[in-house]
Fold these 3 entries.
Entry 1:
Amino acid sequence: MLRVVRTLLVALVLVGVGVVAGQALERVYGWGEPPEAYATLADAVRTVEAEYVDEMTPQTLSESAIHSLLSGLDPHSSYISTDRMKRVQESFEAEFEGIGVTYERIRAASAPDTAVVVSVIPGGPSDEAGLRSGDRLVRTDSTSLVGLPDRRIQSLLKGPRGTTVNVTVRRPGTAGLSTHAVTRDRIPLNTVDAAYMMDAQTGYIKLNRFARTTHREMRDALTQLKADGMQRLVFDMRDNAGGLMRVAERVADEFLHDDQLVVVARGRDGAVLDEYRTERAGLFEQGPMMVLVNGRSASASEIVAGALHDHSRALVVGQRTYGKGLVQRQYELQDGSGLRLTIARFYTPSGRAIQRPYETGAAVTRPAAYIDSTDANSSANHRAAGSGGIMPDRVIERDSLYQMAQRLVQQPAMRAAMRDWIDRNIPSLRDAWAGRPEAFLATYELPKDVIDRLVHGGAGSAGQRSAERALGRPEPYGITERTSQDTYVQLANTDRGTILLQNALTSMVARRLFGMAEWIRMQNKVDPTVQATPQLWPHATTRAQTYANRR
């Protein structure tokens, strides 16, 4: 009997595949009835529904079938539930309707989680209503937010534009609770995290993903930087997981001459399904340029980096990119859920496959005959680098000390200690630095005695007491793990380690005071990849001159 049930469940999976895929393909491609082979599977699913020992809802069976279908394909084809589909659409649209805050969770072993506001979008609904970074979200209207999961908190904060929600908060340093009436509105999800002048001639742009607003944001940033005197650009796409392909193509068009190949999509048997060539005048087609990438740069960011790399337009710096070069199309199903299916693979102008070989399944190979004629003078290493992803011109090795400092400040105990220190000092910090981000970034340093009290705690109870002193509170709360204590001491016992730790902690103050852009600017002061760029400008300049002479 068990074997029969297992057989029927396998059949159920397949019939689910047939039903769902058949419906989707009929809608998309105009197919008629599903193939006759699915009829047997339909009989099997009816048998399982009628005879299986446990009652299963059609929704559960359907989703299980779809997941099983996609599990046999590439690692990136996926099923998107109805709820998640809404969040995906928000990400692509780069806006949603809500109150305009970002928050993080304060997790405590002996108390329910609390949501604390990390940033308030300037000019947004919460800003106008008087909410501030650091506020603890206590309730909306009559519903407590304490201890709720993120999805529930977000559902209570979001809502139709024009509706009002009463948000009650506890503000550190202020007695009692305060309630703010916030009228929801459209909230932009900015994709340009930072755009500023690193020096008198060097602009910097940090892009976190490719959404519908990205091209406009990029043009605005380039226009402003050029007005500020930019002659060369650092374009940072590290940790950029991708997004909309057409937007990536438009971004690449801002840096390349007209009629240059950006990317090629090849489907079954290597057939060209689509290709994109530049077609309009860009804002920065001349001048030295570097593109920063790392192992979390993927998909659309790899398309841009690959095009600028192959055409020798920019010097690519950092670590090899992730290697996700699949053309995916999203199909909406009848219940509002969706399928994200791979229909082709992306190739750079010189014919390199961006997709790295799958851990399982068919390997990706580069078509030997495909090299774009416009790239005939490109360096051989551009075409020869295989195994997927974009290999930088200049690899910046991982800096273990820098990574150590970054990991340690993300430890819950350190974040909690710093959060409490900022809470207690935020009034004086705002009095001293409000409206003066440039002065803060140039001169402020977290007091050394604060770091000392956090770091030099030693082991066991002494370390715990040291952390408690830094917090200014007698709670059993601090850096108590021996491994973490040893790492803190290791950092603090070297001059550079102290600088890195101080910068990471000071960046948290900058974010509370001014927001994401200043947090990035502060971290860039010691970031190994960013700090390597000044020495590389001669190479980027030579590349830019070579590119300009080809026109």
Entry 2:
Amino acid sequence: MPEHASEVTAAEIARLAGVGRAAVSNWRRRHDDFPRPVGGSDTSPTYELAAIERWLREQGKLPSVPLYERLWQRADSHPEGVPAALRIAGSVLMLVREDPRLAVHYSAASDSELADRLPAELESALAARFGPNHPVRLPEQLDEAVPLLRTAVKFAEDVGPAQTYEFLFGRYLDANPRQFVLTPPGPAELMAALAGERPGSVLDPACGSGALLRASGATATVHAQEIDPELASLTALRLALATDPTVRVRVGTGDSLRADAFHDLAVDTVLCHPPFNDRNWGHDELGYDPRWEYGFPARTESELAWLQHALAHTREGGTVVMLMPPAVASRRSGRRVRADLLRRGALRAVVALPAGAAPPHGLPLHLWVLRKPHPEHRPPAELLLFDAAGIPGSGAEKAPWFAVSSAVLDTWRAFDRHGSVPDRPGLNRTLPVIELLDDDVDVTPARHLPPPAADGGAAELETVRDRLAQTLRRTADMAPAPPADGEPARWPTTTVGELARSGALLMRAGGGGIAPQDGSAAPPAVLTEHDVIAGGGPTGILPPGRAEGPAEEPVLVEEGDVVVPILGGGGVARVVDAAIAGAALGRNVYLLRPDTGALDPWFLAGFLRGTANSRQASSFATTSTRIDVRRLQVPRLPPAEQRRYGERFRTLAAFEDALRQATQLGDQLVQGLYDGLTDGTVRPG
């Protein structure tokens, strides 16, 4: 394949050079020698990658192209599309993983030799790994993919075949966010942990990108089915690279409810994040299907159809963990199925997750844990109900995910071992099944938990009131003095992008990094965009890494850094203090690390917060506003003047923190009084 076959868009050129897209438009207008388009359209032209790289180097705008970026560009410019490129690259990476010596051979072979021999080798390896009816379809000729394969093998030498494919697959999923419903790593890991440490053979009948099966740690056979043939092929390769070569991977395509690819299969564990609210799940065609052992689901109860499909594929005593929308716990159309699940002891626990744990992010989704009943065993008499919203956080902040996951797991494991756990108001309750078998059969956790008592009663509320009074007095003392009049400033300005190029500050984007898997060190907490906006401590967690290849290092914040969230309209910039130093930088947050000899951090953060500054650096999409950090402006002032402004901005930030604390204490006092008056622990007098 000739080098010029790889093409890039203006947005991809901007990413290569580390600039905004407007800069690429300026280069096209101002430089006569800028490469001409070779494809695309008038509104979205594409350019020859090699020519663009050459021009950027000649202009001093690109010292070197990162290998990972070159790899993605080769995949993105494949003539048959990114999915075809990923199927080819993933198949070669699978071969290299099983025999690392092939990497040297492929690097030394000629283009024609690779194109001639690889199709047969890859097809043989795919059949051996997945069986003869595997979903990974490759082209008969690989001439156009040879540069992609060479780059993938070279990248794999540094990070490993599995991480190389994870990078490509992750980029593809990120580029098509509306096309896929993904299970985030945190809930996926929790679901796998709820299934037990020895999952045995595992099935996911609606596998999507394979997140649940990847998290399962299966040691026997992995079975997956996905309705989208293209996604099924990519997920099959992901699972093959993520699991031990001794683990059999079987991936089917099609609608699991209408066309079950594993009709006679019984496994130890089923993990599933099914489609939600699907009225076209097959109600009319499947009325007499033997899977409806607990009752024929209504047309509006597609989730209960998926649940019974999962139980039908589970061995007696096997475990099913399902991610469900909260309405399934209470809809009247599903009460008969819920009642039979309870009577026969199949449903063992319902866990309400905090809102935002998984898409759709506005709903507090539920986890249902089920066990396939043994016909000769007496059904369990109690059900565990757990509401993660009751897990205490820090002040008014919600609990971080690692606290949620640990609390859920500890409670479930104790319940599973002993059959019961002590009730905790507002958090969990072990409820006799007989109490749920009423007209509603409502298993929503929050509706059955004893309400949390007002913390500490009247004495604790008096303490909160005293703290609020002290905070209000301190806030009044800190209120800024009346400002002095002045004329609009006419000082010269520079941009953050120019400061970064001159070395006055270091600019890094957050969102990278994975947690180590060897237990050598506790992973740092993640400073999310919500944390920056709310002024709280880090609440996020790093996604789990894998054993293959070196772990990607996160960006860690240091005291004196300035962090800026880029979504939501701007107006926020925060100086990192000792309390949050060492946290990892989350997605959609930029780090600016000033050279303190040239730039005062508080001066920088203060001017970045100006409304006019944020407005001129914003781009507007249909659903959100995004800040281009490089375009934010800063006055050119001498160090002494910077420090004078910086000290003023520092006092404003302290005043803002005091206001925030007063608001939190006021909310706590008001809600505590409402709760105390309504539950009788506080009297009106």
Entry 3:
Amino acid sequence: MSYTTRDIRNICFLGHGGSGKTSLAENMLYMTGAIDRQGKVPDGNTVCDYDAEETKRQITISASVAPVEFNGTKINVLDCPGYFDFASEALCAIRVSEAGVIFCTAKDGLSVGAERSWKYLKNAGIPAMFYVSKLDEEHGDFNAVLSALRDKFGASVCAVTAPMSDGTGVIDLVHNCAYQTSGKKTTKIAVPDADKARAEELREVLMEAAATTEELMEKYLEELALTEAEIVEGLKAGLIERSVFPVFCGCAMNGVGTEALLRGVTEFVPSPDAMPALKAENGTEVSCDPNGTTVAFVFKTISDQFGKFSFVKVVSGKITADQSMRNSRTGSSDKLGRLYTMCGKKNTEIKEIICGDIAAVGKMEYRTGDTLVDGKAEIVLPRIQFAEPVYSMAISPKTKGQEDKIATGLTRLNEEDISFTIVNNGETHQMVLSGAGDIQLDVLCSKLRTRFGVEPELAPARVPYREKIKKKVEAHGRHKKQSGGSGQFGDVWIRFEPQDETDDLIFAEEVFGGSVPRNFFPAVEKGLREAIHKGVLAGYPLVGLKATLYDGSYHPVDSNEIAFKTAAQLAYKEGIHNANPTMLEPIGTLAVTVPSENMGDVIGDLNKRRGRVMGMNPDSDGYTVVDAEVPMAEMSSYTIDLRSMTQGRGSFVFKFERYEEAPGNIQQKVIDEAKALAEAE
């Protein structure tokens, strides 16, 4: 079927894990004839959850696209993960959607995931709608959920559908009718007598909310009523302005409410060309113009056994097969590969991607966040902003010698998911994997096993401690080696003292009378610079040291650079031991945003972590930002513990600030661990 930009709707399904997003996407495909059989998440046979990890865990891990055709409209449904570890996938989907549908179950009501989704849409300025799912569950209460949504998000939240009291369908409050569903068939009927009073009450609230323009408001105040067309007009305008938030309801398992949702999406969710123009990084406005310069945004990449695909949204113009596009990030122009419409893992080749549509390009070396342009236009669309990774673990292979295999596998996986980072820490000799939480890291490890045939193991990442001396000492280093022929001789006296000018070594010399020839000074300094990489307490780098070479002796034949370098290192070992060495630990600044009711638990927990609370500032929506300084060693499990304390509502940013002397018990613990590690190796 041929579509225009005005026939396109891009929506993303958001909300807590287990709230029915994948099941509804499946039901929409089934009810519109895109699939012959409706799969179920527990059976592992849904269209959107096709990855092996998703099937095994019965959760959505990666956002997937399900194109649905209804009444001449193409609705691209982006089914997003509900678990917080995979929030980056939701952010990618929001970036290319014209509206987000936030899921709440009829039984559990407003969840943490729904609150977070609301924040994501608010920050992105994207229209928001709600869907109350699982109406068939015991103790489900649509009215209670609707009240909770209005209490939380304001009177602009209004029902556009409501459940029929007999459970066989939903009432369409916009058109004042009902849709009764049996199997795959939905029939339009009059509102049942038993539901008329409640429907009338909800319809009045809807009309008031839909009076978003001055003309509609005047008419509503005069007549206390709006026509169906005026309600649709008001909802359309209110959605774009984020002044109206419609609420749908239904049950994906029996199809109740699905057709009403599809009808509502086609009627008042904005098409791509109805949304405000996007601003490029240089301030240029990019409108959704089918006749404009072709501009496309890569919002997702996948590389698996089904091939490599770059998911794009055409922001302006159109893309045709074999068209040459320039990547604004790399500056290179490449002829596009084949174009595909994706439905889960199933791909169908197409000839073009029209303005506003979402599809995939095969076998191109694009990355998430790339902007593709036709010609020489200097357009770079803002990249997607992800939260900084806050949970880090050291990753290594169970079998030695497979480090390169792990690094290669993680690099490939990072092409798909750029929200995690991999750092080879040369200081701690660990490969550190950082992500949003333990589930994300566990999934990455599983993918390394299944896709790349390497068995990884995770361990706590070592903390990069430092060592420093606290008093001034003088030390003697003498290296003398004699074996047939010329020998080696180097003799130095060095004064070691603490300094706070720099973390680096300050080297000075006060040699008089040529006791150590000037040409050996660089060798002494080099020996010391190598030595400070390993402190005497636990082998961590020594910082804040001043070393002054003030005396020594030499042999006219046997002295050389190696001898003086070795002598300096001998002086270092002797002197640092006697200079009252101490351990320094990294301290970071923590800004943790939590609901005000969780303040007591959070501050008590920070005290247990040896944290110092520096201040508290109220944030929006009843949240408070707690500023604190906390030792890095106490933060390894904070992601998981904060979620537990705040039911997932809390978030934080942690950044390294400085080093401080560690308490004695902590120092001894670090020293003991270093000794145990050295013995094990």
